[in-house]
Amino acid sequence: EQVIRKIAAGEVIQRPSSALKELIENSLDAGSTYIKIHLKKEGMNMLRVIDNGCGIQFQDLPRLCERFTTSKLSKYSDLKKITTFGFRGEALSSISYVSHITVITQTRGSQIGYKAEYKNGELVQSRSQDKKTNQDDQIKIIPVASIPGTQIDIENLFYNQPSRLRSFQKNNQETQKILHIVRCYSINNPQVNFIVTQEEKKLPLFICKYSFNANSLERIQEIYSIFVQKSFLNLQINTIIDQSFLLQLEGCVSNLNYFNKVKDSEKNIKKSNFILFINQRLVENKKIKIQINKIYKEILKTKDHPFIFLNLILPPECVDVNIHPSKKQVQFLQEDLILATIMNNLKTLLMNHLC
Ligand code: ADP
Ligand code: MG
């Protein structure tokens, strides 16, 4: 069973950036307005996420990394917070099978924090405790002085998967992947502060500060230092599909000016030019990407890739619940109708802009 879990976990958590994505989503679900990420060796030695969210209840700590442990099902009716991707309570559990997890957490209004460590789905004795083993879970959890919020450390990722460990030791692209994820989440969550630091570097790798009334477009400007005012259009859709469900979409899409400006500027724009969130989760969908590129080619007569940021909200039942968290490609029901609606709105927006 342990071996099977270890292999399955390695499929859910394929690389440091996929572990980080799960941690950021948890911090956002906890209502955080501040998320700090700290890396040691591209996240392989340590990936630390500190947030100022609601914290984890003491009574939830013993089973935190057990499979299917989630505190979120009771909020199932809360559309904004829902992850529709089935597989609840799988992330921390999976991470614990391929790393060593340390959690320090304090709930809001509480005077004291707690520290707990996990391996292979289970609460383990803290490395700071003396060796006299204590079987009592309550005693494995150590009271500590802390502040409200949660800090989760993932150490020695893939220590028990030698071949994967080797492949990441050779590769040094992971920090870029991590930064890409943070950029995307900070664009989709403009009210949240994000900061990324690295042990080996004095200056932060990334900072996005909160500003009053900040929106996604301002974040795009801040992150890519492109002047967005005349280079982007706002795409907004609020419509009932098939007389049965609500499709909501907010997005920023580049216009013709954008292509002229971006030609010789930063190259990381090119890599991050298609950002899609469905129900607050960063996902990929090849069909949408292809159709959008086609529309740009048709209407703006350009072969360059546009910059697209879309935040799509659909009823949970529309998003395929059988999709596994490791599969970033997401499918949804009524896909043709949903895509047609988005593409028609985009076409109209671009045409009006040209006139
Ligand atoms: P899920 O997010 O699907 O519930 P996870 O394995 O990602 O499952 O997390 C398990 C549980 O741990 C969550 O339901 C939540 O109660 C708690 N949790 C994890 N991270 C945080 C955090 N940063 N702040 C508050 N609670 C958290
Ligand atoms: Mg989660």
Automatic annotation (TrEMBL):
Keyword Zinc-finger: no
Main location: nucleus
Keyword flag Nucleus: yes
Domain DNA mismatch repair protein S5: from-to ranges: 220-351
Keywords for this protein: DNA damage, DNA repair, Nucleus
Subcellular localization, as worded in the UniProt entry: Nucleus
Family: Belongs to the DNA mismatch repair MutL/HexB family.
Name of protein: DNA mismatch repair protein mlh1
Source species of the chain: Anaeramoeba flamelloides
Lineage of source species: Eukaryota, Metamonada, Anaeramoebidae, Anaeramoeba
Shown residues within the full chain: 11 to 365 of 889
